[in-house]
Amino acid sequence: MPRDSKIQKQLLEESRKKHDLIQQNFHDSYRNLTWKVEFKHLVSIEMYDETYNVSMILQALMWLRFIDEYCPNVQYIIKLDDDVVGNILEIIHFLNEHVKAVSLLKSQKQIFCRVIYHRPVSREKKNKWYVRRDELSSEYYSNYCVGMAIIFTGDLPNMLLRAAKKERYFWIDDYFITGILAKKVEAQLVDLKRKIVIYTWEGNEEALVNGDIFFRLFSNMSHGLQLWRQIENSYFIRFLNSSLQLMMSPSHKRF
Predict the structure, then answer these.
(1) Positions of E strands within the chain
(2) What is the residue range of the signal peptide feature (predicted)?
(3) 1, 20, 57, 192: which one has the fewest Cβ atoms less than 10 Å from its Cβ?
(4) For position 246, what pLDDT does the model report?
């Protein structure tokens, strides 16, 4: 929670108007161990060191706990960074087709994302992602997700939370959730590859609007809103065209 009461009032006002905030009681700092007692049951901290980034893990576990408590029957959860826009309409179509193709049972315990394979662990102390051997002994990470856009099946939040209670904390949150915990609960990583665009040369804005790619970074909020409006317009035009074609088909002609 913010130390500034004015900021807290602004957050409460936005929550009242938009109903779009989840807030818990800890101080957010990039590499900080400041956290409240009520979170200690969520994750096991075995090594206390100021270089650990607990607040990032708490943010991840916080929304997982919210979904588990308040949305236990959802089929999918889409987690996006705040600088990512997605063609949600195309994603919903993709997920529906996926369930049809593999059956509902086989579509459980899955994480859809852009998968990182066999990434070496950095041992360079000057590197932002430097990891000590006592934190992670292996020379390579297990497969895990690029964190900007991830889709979880609805059965996973509870499983991941229960696994977190028994697992030693690791400070890179994307790896902790989609690498360590996902492996613990035997979740399947489904690689969307370049459906998730990390670099601008991998897919332009038109590809996002048309649904050829699912997720893409945007430069600022007005840019993100502009892209979303284009997606809406494209979907509306396609809907109108399909409706007109249906009306013009022989089976719909009146006699």
Answers:
(1) 76-80, 84-86, 110-113, 115-116, 144-145, 149-153, 188-191, 196-197, 215-217
(2) none
(3) 20
(4) 56
106-132 mean pLDDT: 93
How is residue 16 written in tokens?
A: 């009242």
Phi, psi of 118 (to 5 degrees): 50, 45
d(CA 98, CA 238): 21
Cα separation, 152 vs 159, in Å, equals: 11
**Do β-strands 76-80 and 115-116 pair in parallel, antiparallel, or remain unpaired?**
unpaired
Q: In whole angstroms, give the CA distance from residue 37 to residue 48.
A: 15
Please write the tens of the pLDDT for every residue from 92-107. 999 988 877 766 666 7
Give the list of residues 6+ apart from residue 37 with CB closer than 8 angstroms, or none: none
Helix (H, G, I), strand (E, B) or coil at 183: helix
Query: What does CATH list as the number for 21-242?
Result: 3.90.550
103 conformational bin, left if phi > 0, alpha if psi -120 to 50, beta if neither:
left
d(CA 94, CA 33): 40
Cβ atoms of residues 85 and 215 within 8 Å: yes
Give pLDDT tens digits for 181-225: 999 999 999 999 989 998 877 878 999 999 999 999 988 889 989
Check residues 117 and 238 and name the one with the higher pLDDT: 117
Q: Is the dihedral of CA 237, 239, 242, 245 positive or negative?
A: negative
Token pair of 111, please? 């994480």
Contact between residue 112 and residue 85 where contact means Cβ atoms under 8 Å apart: no
Tokens representing 55?
Answer: 């607040």
Tens of pLDDT along 226-241? 999 999 998 888 776 6
